[in-house]
Design brief:
heterodimer; A: alpha/beta; Rossmann fold; 6-stranded mixed sheet; 41% helix; B: 491 residues; alpha/beta; D-Maltodextrin-Binding Protein, domain 2; 5-stranded mixed sheet; 57% helix; elongated
C-alpha cells in the first residue's frame, strides 16, 4: 500500500537518502533499523510529507507525492496524512489539551465527526492503550510512557491505514519502554500496518515481520526479521548488530 | 502592601509641596548683583513672539526679545533668555529657574492669584473666526452656546468660552484652524496675533469679530515685588518714549488698541487685575471631572487594545506564515510603527489625513494607539508562536490538519498563553501612553489634571489624585500579569 521509488534527498552537500526503492504491503509490520544518520527517520518523515525530497516519488494508496514539498503536493498531502498516522519520538502531545482532548482533536476538526461520537471513540481508544484512568490528565501531568500511549491513541483516532512510528521508545525511561512495546505488539497482532524506526532489536525480531537496514542513505539489507537479525549477510549489518548487542 | 502605601503617602507629600519660590525676596538686588535678567519663554510659540531666525543662523528674534533687551537695559543689566515649555512657564517661574515669565502670558483670573503682573505691554483682542460659508456664528459669546469652539487650553479665550461653548482644547496654534477648515469645529477663539498668522491666511475662514480685550503682562513671583515695581517703571519709560510702539510696529502688530498703553493708569491696572476670581477649591466637582477623564482613558485604552490584539495577531501570522510579499508588508508595518513616535502617528492620522478621511478625535485616538500597539503585539505573538515547539505543528499536520487549522487549533492557543503576561504589561503601558492623545484634543485623565491644576492654582492635589487613579487602574492589571506569569511557570 506504500510504494517508495528511487527516493533521493540531499541536504547541502550531504546525501541523506540515496535512491531508496521499497514497497510495503497491507498488514505488514516493518522495522527500520541501522546506525544513526543512516536515513531511517528521514525516510519515515518523507512518507507523510513532513520532509520534502529531491528525487523519486512516494505513493500511498492512490496518492502520489513528488519532489517540491508542500507547494507541489498540497492536495495529495492532505489525503496521505489522513491515510497514515505518525507517532513521534518526543510524543508531541498538544500541551494545552487533556489526553482525551488530544485524541478527539483531529476527528472533530478534520473529519467533522460529531463531538459525542468522537468522545465515545476516544475513550475506547484510551482504554485500548490502558489509559482510561488518565482521560482528564494534561501532558505535563503524565509520564513519558503514558504520553506516548496517548500519542498512539491520537494517531489511531483518525483510522489510519498505516502507522509510522519514529523511534517511539527512545526518549522513554527504560522501565517505561515495555508498556509502549506491549501496545505496539497488540496492534501488530490486530493486523495494523506499521513502519517502526527502532533501536529495540528484540521488538524488531519478535514483533515485526520484516526488517530493513539503512546505512548511508541506502537499504543494505531487507528480509524477514528473524533472518536479517539472526543471520545478517552484510558486514555492516553484522557490525551494527554486534555493537548493539554488546 | 504596607510598603506600597508608604510610597503613595510619600508621593502625595512631595506633590503637595507645590512650587514655592526657592529664592525669596530682594528680586531687584539679586538681578542687579547677577547683572542679568533671566526671562523665561518658549521659542515654539513662534513668530512674532520669540523665535529663532532661520535666515540669521538661528539668532533669537521677536518683539519680546527686543522688549526684554530694552527692559534689561533700563535696569542696567543684560537680558538672558531661558527656554521653557510654555504650558509650564508659571510653575517654572515659581521654582525660581528664571526671574520673569515674558512670553504672551495673558492676565487671567487664575494667574492673578498666583503671580504678580506688571502693567501690560500688549493689548490683544480675543478674535473669533468661523468658516466663510457658515453665517450662523455671530460676534457674541451667546451665539457660541452649545457649539464646538477650538482654542488653547488655559488661555484667556479658554476662560471666556468655558461654561458657554463646547470647548475643544488644542496644544498648538496651527491645529485649531486646520480643524475649523475641516469642519471638526464650528469656530476658533484665540488672540488676534495668533489669528492673524495662522487663521486669517486661510481663504475658507472669515473673521467674525473680537469678543474681548486681553492683556500680555510680565509675570513675577509675589516675593519679587520690588523687581515688579522696577520693571513697571521701566515699561512706563519705554512706553512714554515711543520705544515700545517702535518695537510693536517692527513686528507689525501695532494697532489702535495699543494707544491705551500710553495712558495706562493705576485704575486701569486695578481693573485689569480686578477680574481675579477667588481660586477654586479642589472639590467633588473636580473629582467628578477626574472620574470622567479616567473613564475616557480606560475606554480609549480598552478599545485601542481590542484593535491591537487581532491586528497584531494577523501581522504576526502574516509575517511567519504568509506568502513572501505579505510577510514583507507585515514586517515593514511593524518596523515603521515601532520606529516612529506615536505622537507623530497621531498627528498624521488626525491632521495629515484629514483631507481624505475626517475621523473624529476619539476614533483617531483609538485607531492611532491601536495601530501603534498592534506593532508591539505582533512582536509579542511572534515570540510566542516561535516559543511553541515545532513538534506541535508537525503533530497537527500529520493528523491531516491544514496549516491554518493547525495554527488556529494548536499553535496560536499555546502562543497566546505564552504571550498573555506581556500583553497585560503592554496594556498597562498603553493606559499611560493614552495621555498622548491630548494633542488631538481628547480630554483624558492627564489633560483633565493639567486643566484643573491651573484652576485651583496648584499641582499637589490634582497630581496626587491623577496618579492614584492611574495606579488604581493599572495595579490590578499588574497583579493579573503576575498571576498569569506564575501560572505559566507552573505548567
Amino acid at each position: 500500500m506504500i510504494e517508495v521509488h528511487e527516493l533521493r534527498k540531499v541536504y547541502g552537500d550531504r546525501t541523506i537518502l540515496d535512491g531508496i526503492t521499497a514497497s510495503f504491503a497491507r498488514g505488514q509490520v516493518v522495522a527500520l533499523v541501522g546506525p544513526s544518520g543512516g536515513g531511517k527517520s528521514t525516510l519515515l518523515r518523507c512518507l507523510n510529507g513532513l520532509e520534502s525530497f529531491d528525487g523519486g516519488a512516494v505513493t500511498v494508496g492512490g496518492d502520489r507525492l513528488v519532489p517540491g514539498g508542500a507547494k507541489a503536493n498540497r492536495a495529495a498531502l492532505h489525503r496521505v496524512r489522513q491515510r497514515v498516522g505518525m507517532v513521534f519520538q518526543q510524543w508531541n502531545l498538544f500541551a494545552h489539551r487533556t489526553a482525551l482532548g488530544n485524541v478527539i482533536e483531529a476527528p472533530v476538526h478534520v473529519k467533522r465527526v460529531p463531538l459525542a461520537e468522537a468522545t465515545e471513540r476516544g475513550k475506547a481508544l484510551l482504554a485500548r492503550v490502558g489509559l482510561s484512568h488518565r482521560e482528564g490528565a494534561y501532558p505535563h501531568e503524565m509520564s513519558g510512557g503514558e504520553q506516548q500511549r496517548v500519542a498512539i491513541a491520537r494517531a489511531l483516532a483518525m483510522d489510519p491505514e498505516a502507522l509510522l512510528l519514529d523511534e517511539p521508545t527512545s526518549a522513554l525511561d527504560p522501565e517505561r519502554v515495555g508498556e509502549v512495546l506491549d501496545v505496539l505488539g497488540a496492534l501488530a497482532a490486530d493486523g495494523l500496518t506499521m513502519l517502526v524506526v527502532t533501536h529495540e532489536m528484540r521488538f524488531a525480531r519478535d514483533v515485526s515481520h520484516r526488517t530493513l537496514v539503512l546505512h548511508g542513505g541506502r537499504i543494505i539489507e531487507d528480509g524477514p526479521s528473524r533472518e536479517v537479525i539472526d543471520h545478517p549477510k552484510h558486514e555492516r549489518t553484522r557490525a551494527f548488530l554486534g555493537l548493539d548487542r554488546r | 502592601m504596607n510598603r506600597l502605601w508608604w510610597v503613595l503617602v510619600l508621593a502625595m507629600a512631595v506633590l503637595s509641596c507645590r512650587g514655592r519660590a526657592v529664592v525669596v525676596g530682594g528680586g531687584l538686588a539679586r538681578v542687579r548683583a547677577a547683572g542679568v535678567l533671566r526671562w523665561g519663554g518658549d521659542i515654539q510659540g513662534g513668530e512674532p513672539y520669540v523665535y529663532e531666525d532661520s535666515e540669521h543662523g538661528g539668532r533669537l528674534t521677536g518683539f519680546e526679545v527686543e522688549l526684554a533687551n530694552a527692559l534689561a537695559r533700563e535696569l542696567g543689566v543684560r537680558a538672558q533668555f531661558v527656554q521653557n515649555d510654555w504650558s509650564a512657564l508659571i510653575p517654572t517661574l515659581e521654582r525660581g529657574t528664571f526671574d520673569v515669565a515674558l512670553n504672551g502670558v495673558e492676565v487671567t483670573p487664575q494667574r492673578v492669584g498666583r503671580v504678580r503682573f506688571t502693567r501690560p505691554y500688549y493689548i490683544f483682542g480675543a478674535r473669533l473666526m468661523a468658516r466663510r460659508n457658515d453665517p450662523s456664528v455671530q460676534p457674541t459669546l451667546a451665539s457660541l452656546r452649545g457649539r464646538r469652539v477650538g482654542t488653547l487650553a488655559n488661555r484667556f479665550s479658554y476662560e471666556l468660552l468655558r461654561n458657554v461653548a463646547e470647548v475643544v482644547p488644542y496644544e498648538g496654534v496651527e491645529e485649531p484652524y486646520i480643524d475649523l477648515v475641516q469642519g471638526r469645529t464650528d469656530a476658533v477663539l484665540l488672540d488676534d496675533i495668533i489669528a492673524a498668522r495662522y487663521g486669517e491666511p486661510k481663504p475658507e475662514l472669515r473673521v467674525v469679530g473680537d469678543l474681548a480685550d486681553g492683556y500680555y503682562s510680565i509675570a513675577l513671583r509675589p516675593a519679587d515685588d520690588d523687581l515688579r515695581a522696577a520693571l513697571d517703571a521701566a515699561l512706563a519709560r519705554i512706553t512714554a518714549s515711543g520705544e515700545l510702539e517702535r518695537i510693536l510696529r517692527g513686528a507689525n502688530i501695532f494697532n489702535d488698541r495699543q494707544r491705551r498703553l500710553v495712558t495706562w493708569t493705576d485704575d486701569d491696572q486695578r481693573r485689569m487685575l480686578g477680574t481675579a476670581a477667588a481660586g477654586q477649591r479642589f472639590g467633588w466637582s473636580h473629582v467628578a471631572l477626574f472620574g470622567k477623564g479616567a473613564l475616557v482613558t480606560l475606554l480609549l485604552s480598552a478599545l485601542a487594545m481590542c484593535l491591537a490584539i487581532p491586528l497584531g495577531l494577523g501581522l504576526a501570522v502574516a509575517r511567519l506564515y504568509g506568502p513572501p510579499a505579505l510577510s514583507r508588508i507585515a514586517g515593514a508595518y511593524v518596523e515603521l510603527y515601532r520606529g516612529t513616535p506615536v505622537l507623530l502617528q497621531l498627528y498624521v492620522l488626525y491632521y495629515g489625513l484629514a483631507p481624505i478621511v475626517r475621523l473624529n478625535a476619539l476614533s483617531a485616538a483609538v485607531l492611532g494607539l491601536g495601530m501603534n500597539y498592534a506593532a508591539y503585539e505582533a512582536e509579542v505573538y511572534r515570540a510566542g508562536i516561535q516559543a511553541v515547539p515545532r513538534g506541535q505543528m508537525e503533530a497537527a499536520l500529520s493528523l491531516g490538519m491544514t496549516t491554518p487549522l493547525a495554527l488556529r487549533r494548536v499553535v496560536l492557543p499555546q502562543a497566546f498563553r505564552l504571550a498573555l503576561p506581556s500583553v497585560t504589561n503592554d496594556f498597562i503601558a498603553l493606559l499611560k501612553d493614552s495621555s498622548l492623545v491630548s494633542v488631538i484634543t481628547v480630554v483624558e485623565l492627564t489633560k483633565q489634571m493639567t486643566i484643573t491644576a491651573v484652576d485651583i492654582r496648584g499641582w499637589g492635589l490634582p497630581g496626587a489624585l491623577c496618579a492614584l487613579m492611574y495606579f488604581t487602574m493599572s495595579y490590578p492589571l499588574s497583579l493579573l500579569a503576575q498571576r498569569l506569569e506564575a501560572r505559566l511557570a507552573r505548567s
